[in-house]
């Protein structure tokens, strides 16, 4: 049984606006919402990033350390350029982690917010147009994706057997930053679109039918150019947005390997980020406003 | 719609139809309301009457199909951000942020509404203190009791000192003691001049709290007045219902010509008498049965209340 002090009832809690009432600007509200995300991220840092780190960590451990040790060196034929498999994996695993984290960072909370208790109403009542709230969600999840990708870097750079060190060399920093940022935003915008379109009971299906094939066939473990030998797959693969993140990172990190041309990956990254953001904003608004 | 300084909330012929099969659901079918600043206004009606949809439209989260609504002079569709800046909303569900502590829920709400970080923290502590929640400051909002969670939601709605506070079924699902405590909280807010619009399906809640009440059913306002006004306007003060296991006795049928009785409704084996002078009437209706040779199966007398008003307005029992 709860009881409250008599003072509670007669408190000066809800005076009509006094002169010092804040006048929030859209930018201020937007930044305050980002500050909330950072606070939550700080609290849940380990649990948030463990799930994104484990998969690439195990992968490089098995393929760049264990297999070369036990004589599985046949794996180490990346792009026909004589590079070690670890060299192929660096951009691939960073890129796929970014995409996976971007999608998960928006889908998981959204399933709760849109369904259970419909707690999205809380955020939707903040003085921000609902489409801007969608943009804020994309920005916040994009930030998580970027952090996830950066955390994967050291793992894939330093875990390898002797002589299997990846050969990474950044000769164009702006391209690297742009690909990382655009890839993060594209993934979270795509996540918001999926999250607002699918039925919450079917999240498992999303992972099985969308994310799993997307990462296995996302040119993570081989460069796109190497698919020459399986021409049909090389063409079908072009529908997978993750390919452009990985190829962009390949261009930025391991330029010595075959990779798509700048205009191909950058063009797709820019256009699909814009398109996904636009459509996710619309579907989100439809789900929030009834 | 021209902003009128003394009107806090206004709706004109407000409609909402949810799309769906067979033409969808007409949740709200033409609601007109005016709530003045400083008023405690209640939307009273059974579940499914359209109250939550109406409050949803006023808080900008439900888009009206037709008609207009404004809060503090701002149109809820065209100026939704201006409306959101001026309102606080306590919804029926627990929509507290489970990733944050009780304190942080208030802190960030303040920052969303433009308070600086330090002011937001000060305001959060001030509200926790006022509402007796200080000891739950660092706790997860989902570990609070139902009454505490509701109080925290009220705190959160008040952080930015809204001009209008909306509460959707604030005491639904709470135990009676907690409900009465919450009423005290709301009365205190009103005493401070807070404009409040609340929906409820509890008659006694509307009677206990509201300056004015709109009785809503099937998406329409049936009557809107002060609680006393609603009781008076029904034309009857007391409603007596008697059921018989046969035909209603003839003597009862003639009652409507008598002074102090405003209406007699005859149903199959049932009579309902609306009376301003009810003394002895119930006994008379029972005795009439004996002389006509039928048995009384049920008899009730409702003292004048919002419930009798509802009965008179709709011709139906109030269904909660």
UniProtKB/TrEMBL annotation, chain A:
Q: Does the keyword Cell membrane apply?
A: yes
TM stretches of this protein: 49-68, 88-110, 138-161, 173-198, 205-224, 262-281
KW Transmembrane helix (keyword) present: yes
Localization, UniProt: Cell membrane; Membrane
Q: Which residues form a coiled coil?
A: none
Q: How does it sit in the membrane?
A: Multi-pass membrane protein
Indicate where this protein is primarily found.
membrane
Q: Which UniProt keywords apply?
A: Cell membrane, Membrane, Transmembrane, Transmembrane helix, Transport
List every stretch annotated Disordered: 1-21
The ABC transmembrane type-2 domain sits at 47-287
Q: Which family does it belong to?
A: Belongs to the ABC-2 integral membrane protein family.
- Return the protein name: Transport permease protein
What is the phylogenetic placement of the source species in the record? Bacteria, Bacillati, Actinomycetota, Actinomycetes, Streptosporangiales
Automatic annotation (TrEMBL), chain B:
Q: Which GO MF terms does the UniProt record name?
A: ATP binding
What Pfam family is a match, any one? Answer: ABC_tran
Q: Which residues form the signal peptide?
A: none
Location in the cell reads: Cell membrane
UniProt keyword terms in alphabetical order: Antibiotic resistance, ATP-binding, Nucleotide-binding, Transport
**Topology with regard to the membrane?**
Peripheral membrane protein
The ABC transporter domain, residue ranges? 9-243
Protein name per UniProt: ABC transporter ATP-binding protein
Q: Which family does it belong to?
A: Belongs to the ABC transporter superfamily. Drug exporter-1 (DrugE1) (TC 3.A.1.105) family.
SMART domains named among the record's database cross-references: AAA
The organism of origin for this protein: Actinomadura yumaensis
């Amino acid at each position: 049984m709860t009881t409250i002090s008599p003072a509670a009832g007669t408190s000066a809690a809800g005076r009509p606006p006094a002169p010092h009432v804040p006048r929030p600007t859209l930018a201020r509200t937007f930044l305050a919402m980002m500050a909330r995300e950072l606070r939550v991220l700080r609290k849940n840092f380990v649990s948030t990033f463990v799930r994104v780190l484990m998969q690439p960590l195990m992968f490089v451990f098995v393929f760049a350390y264990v297999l070369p040790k036990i004589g599985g060196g046949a794996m180490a034929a990346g792009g026909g350029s004589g590079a070690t498999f670890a060299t192929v994996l660096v951009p691939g695993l960073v890129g796929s982690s970014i995409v996976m984290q971007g999608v998960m960072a928006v889908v998981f909370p959204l399933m709760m917010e849109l369904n259970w208790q419909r707690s999205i109403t809380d955020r939707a009542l903040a003085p921000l147009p609902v489409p801007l709230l969608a943009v804020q969600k994309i920005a916040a999840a994009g930030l998580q994706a970027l952090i996830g990708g950066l955390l994967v870097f050291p793992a894939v750079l330093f875990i390898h057997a002797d002589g299997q060190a990846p050969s990474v060399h950044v000769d164009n920093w702006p391209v690297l930053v742009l690909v990382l940022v655009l890839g993060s935003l594209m993934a979270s915008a795509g996540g918001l679109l999926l999250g607002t379109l699918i039925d919450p009971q079917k999240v498992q299906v999303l992972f099985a039918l969308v994310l799993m094939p997307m990462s296995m066939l996302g040119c993570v473990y081989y460069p796109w150019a190497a698919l020459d030998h399986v021409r049909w797959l090389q063409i079908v693969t072009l529908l997978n947005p993750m390919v452009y993140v990985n190829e962009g990172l390949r261009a930025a990190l391991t330029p010595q390997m075959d990779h798509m041309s700048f205009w191909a990956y950058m063009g797709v990254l820019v256009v699909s980020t814009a398109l996904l953001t636009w459509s996710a904003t619309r579907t989100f608004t439809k789900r929030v406003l009834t | 719609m021209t902003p009128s300084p003394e009107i806090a909330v206004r709706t004109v012929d407000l409609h909402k139809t949810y799309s769906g099969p067979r033409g969808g659901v007409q949740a709200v079918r033409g609601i007109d309301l005016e709530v003045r600043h400083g008023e405690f206004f209640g939307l009273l009606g059974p579940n499914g009457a359209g109250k939550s949809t109406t409050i949803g439209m006023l808080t900008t989260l439900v888009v009206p199909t037709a008609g207009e609504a404004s809060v503090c002079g701002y149109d809820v569709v065209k100026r939704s951000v201006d409306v959101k800046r001026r309102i606080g909303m306590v919804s029926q569900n627990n929509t507290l942020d489970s990733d944050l502590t009780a304190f942080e829920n208030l802190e960030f709400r303040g920052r969303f509404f433009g308070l600086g970080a330090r002011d937001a923290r000060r305001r959060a502590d001030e509200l926790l203190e006022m509402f007796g929640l200080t000891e739950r400051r660092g706790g997860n909002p989902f570990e609070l009791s139902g009454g505490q969670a509701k109080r925290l939601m009220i705190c959160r709605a008040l952080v930015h000192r809204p001009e209008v506070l909306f509460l959707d079924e604030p005491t639904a699902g709470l135990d009676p003691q907690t409900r009465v405590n919450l009423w005290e909280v709301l009365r205190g807010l009103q005493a401070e001049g807070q404009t409040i619009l609340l929906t409820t399906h509890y008659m006694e809640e509307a009677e206990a709290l509201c300056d004015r009440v709109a009785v809503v059913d099937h998406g329409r306002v049936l009557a809107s007045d002060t609680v006393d006004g609603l009781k008076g306007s029904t034309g009857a003060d007391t409603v007596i219902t008697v059921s018989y296991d046969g035909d209603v006795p003839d003597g009862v049928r003639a009652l409507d010509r008598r002074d102090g009785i405003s209406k007699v409704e005859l149903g199959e084996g049932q009579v309902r008498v609306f009376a301003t002078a009810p003394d002895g009437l119930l006994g008379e209706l029972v005795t009439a049965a004996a002389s006509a040779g039928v048995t009384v199966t049920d008899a009730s007398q409702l003292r004048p209340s919002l419930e009798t008003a509802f009965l008179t307005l709709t011709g139906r029992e109030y269904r909660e």
